[in-house]
Amino acid sequence: MSAHPLVPLSPPSEIGPFHIRPASEDDLPALVRLDTELFPDFAYPYFVLRQFLDLYQDRLLVLDDGSSLHGYALSALSADGRTSWILGLGVAERLRGRGLARRLMQETLRRLPADGVHEVWLTVEPANTAAITLYHSLGFTRQGARKDYFGPGHDRLLLALRH
Rounded CA gap, 24 and 21, in Å? Predict the structure, then answer.
């Protein structure tokens, strides 16, 4: 029997000293700090991350070493439940290149079929070649580009993973 196409190799939730787990309310201050570090121009305000936690707690995964958060992935379901959007993915700059973003994405994708998801969408900055390479390696394909997607001068590529 073949694996569900949205499920790359299932990673363990333990990655060396790191653990991938759903975020908790206690994580909010660290999550806000991390998001601001990762995306200074587009960081989610505290109140938005608070509401994401309330709405998507099982889909807001954090990379934790027991004392600090070092990354996160956030996905959300469409109204019909068949499509998911990746709303955020990031790993602290000092830890990049270790496969941690891949593991966060794999864990996110591993969880989605249980919700009936048949496709996953995301946007990425056209100049972010590392992220684009990661997404392509996970099976995402380019679906187009959107000029000014996040406002004037902030273009995005649209990628999707379907089965």
Answer: 9
